[in-house]
């Protein structure tokens, strides 16, 4: 089928897969709450727009502790979101300064579809093995929980592949607040858009 290929017996596009591994993703409560806040803020722009944040934290053997939310400066529209090289460079600098590990990105879609679009594949600035890419439906106007209503994709063998609900249920958990919680807000364009809306 055009556009569909198989790597390690997993269908790359269209079908969720269930990796056999023992990785656990622990996402602190504040990370979820702050992610939702930022994504909802984009939904309040005129017109309502897609939003994005990056997640970071640390790895302890097979456990990924997600404790940090980074809001990059981004150009948001109702159908896509673009982060420039300079904006991503600031994120990388922040990661270097703090010693945090980039663990994923979270962005919204306007409707219920939470697949990874070709644009999502192409536009993702960071593509390294194991990186998560979570797509939240409905501009995150509701909660992003339970996580299985989101599309949770992971970069594997040069492609973002959707993790199955079975895998997500078993390997992802939202945990209590973390003392190491960090929120870094690099947004400029968003606040400029808010200013223009308020002026109108
Ligand atoms: Zn997308």
Automatic annotation (TrEMBL):
<protein>
    <recommendedName>
        <fullName>JAB domain-containing protein</fullName>
    </recommendedName>
</protein>
């Amino acid at each position: 089928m055009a556009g569909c290929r198989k790597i390690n017996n997993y269908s790359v596009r269209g079908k969720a897969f269930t990796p056999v591994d023992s990785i656990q993703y622990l996402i602190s409560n504040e990370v979820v709450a702050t992610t939702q806040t930022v994504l909802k803020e984009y939904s309040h722009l005129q017109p309502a727009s897609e939003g994005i944040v990056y997640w970071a934290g640390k790895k302890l053997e097979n456990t990924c502790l997600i404790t940090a939310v980074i809001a990059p400066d981004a150009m948001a529209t109702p159908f896509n979101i673009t982060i420039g090289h300079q904006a991503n460079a600031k994120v990388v600098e922040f990661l270097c300064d703090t010693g945090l590990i980039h663990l994923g990105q979270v962005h919204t879609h306007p409707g219920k579809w939470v697949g990874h679009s070709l644009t999502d594949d192409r536009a993702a600035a960071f593509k390294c093995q194991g990186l998560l890419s979570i797509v939240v439906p409905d501009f995150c106007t509701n909660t992003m929980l339970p996580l299985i209503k989101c599309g949770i994709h992971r970069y594997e063998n040069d492609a973002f592949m959707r993790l199955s609900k079975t895998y997500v249920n078993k390997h992802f958990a939202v945990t209590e607040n973390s003392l190491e919680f960090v929120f870094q807000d690099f947004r400029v364009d968003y606040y400029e858009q808010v200013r223009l809306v308020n002026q109108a």
